[in-house]
Amino acid sequence: MTPIQTQDYSIQFNDDCYTALNKYINQHSFSNIFVLVDSNTSEHCLPIFLRQLETDLTIEIIEIEAGEQNKTIETCSGVWQTLSELRADRKTLMLNLGGGVVTDLGGFVACTYQRGIKFINIPTTLLSMVDASIGGKNGVDLGNIKNQVGIIKTPNMVLIDTNYLETLSSREMRSGLAEMLKHGLIRDELYYNKLSALSNLTLEDLDQLIYDSVLIKKDIVEQDPTEQNLRKSLNFGHTLGHAIESYYLNHETKSLLHGEAIAIGMILETYLSSQLLNFPTEKTKSIKENTLKVYGKIDIPEKDYAPIIELMKFDKKNEKGTINFVLLNTIGNPEINCVIPNDLLIKSLNFYNE
């Protein structure tokens, strides 16, 4: 696949990844290399990755525990401490090998260690390939509030090797698919329809769809890198979705992956679109049916409505105390900065539960 060149860095695909990485390392006078992994990618991805590296530089591995619950300042502190103890300096290169937790946290650590070292993201999950590793958002959660502390700074390169997807469970694959479905809903109905026909897709189709998803996000981010306007559309499904994900983050029986929560959020926010922006009712029902076929349905009891709505007060899109939503006029035509009355939020949750 042809590399995608953004304004600041390149996104390389499959076999070309490692040629580009080794060339980049050889062209720079790095003092050493640190590879950040989590306990999953350490076992399943790191051996594959290390075989592709061609360098005489010292390579150090830093491993963190897997899971969103470990995407914290405390984990960052441990990584910063390890970097310092192992003599990382401003000429160190950091390679973040993992899903969204690793690339988000690793990017934040690299941006702040000694005021910034170079870093490259190697996403290993579908979610991180099409979303977390692109666009320069780096950060961690604050308690159970998603991505509350962070910085926007692009990596020096992104390497997308879809062979890593073979290490994922079907649940993790579905989680990543949610962000791709979102890209279709906010940008391209034809693309959304292709993704909805899951039973007809081959692995080659998936490679192309990932490539197309990256192009959609790249185009939006380049037009609005600091999320003042258009980039907010990428948050469709996320205002309610993040609140639901946060609420159930440490739940014993109902903890949700990011994409599972966003899938619920997209159903809810499509319903809100139908109520406020006259988004077609039939398409609202169809999106709900198609989404539930893939993700199933969880029970959200009425007693959970109020704390979920309360969590939306911490959403980063809020301005002057107002909770802002992204809704849809039609598929491919989003509307940003929409304000929703509380009674409609409750109706949207009822619509999901019906």
Write the layout of secondary structure elements.
Layout: E1 4-5, E2 10-13, H1 15-27, E3 32-38, H2 39-44, H3 46-52, E4 59-64, H4 73-85, E5 92-98, H5 100-112, E6 118-123, H6 126-132, E7 137-142, E8 145-152, E9 157-160, H7 170-187, H8 189-196, H9 203-223, H10 238-247, H11 258-276, H12 281-295, H13 305-311, E10 325-330, E11 333-338, H14 342-353
Helix pairs in contact: 4-5, 5-6, 6-7, 6-9, 7-8, 7-9, 7-11, 10-11, 10-13, 11-12, 11-14
Describe this structure in words.
- It comes from Olleya namhaensis.
- Its cofactor is NAD(+); Zn(2+); Co(2+).
- Catalyzes the conversion of 3-deoxy-D-arabino-heptulosonate 7-phosphate (DAHP) to dehydroquinate (DHQ).
- The strands form three sheets. Strands 1-2-9-6-5-3-4 form a seven-stranded mixed beta sheet, sandwiched between helices.
- α6 packs parallel to α7 (170-187) and α7 (170-187) runs antiparallel to α8 (189-196).
- A hairpin with a 2-residue loop joins β10 and β11 (333-338).
- Helix content is 48%, strand content 18%.
- By secondary structure, it is of the alpha/beta class.
- It is built from 14 helices and eleven strands.
- The radius of gyration is 20 Å and the shape is globular.
- It folds into two domains: 4-167, Rossmann fold (3-Layer(aba) Sandwich), CATH 3.40.50.1970; 170-353, Dehydroquinate synthase-like - alpha domain (Dehydroquinate synthase-like, alpha domain), CATH 1.20.1090.
- The model has no long low-confidence stretch (mean pLDDT 93).
- The longest helix is centred in the middle third of the chain and has 21 residues, at 203-223.
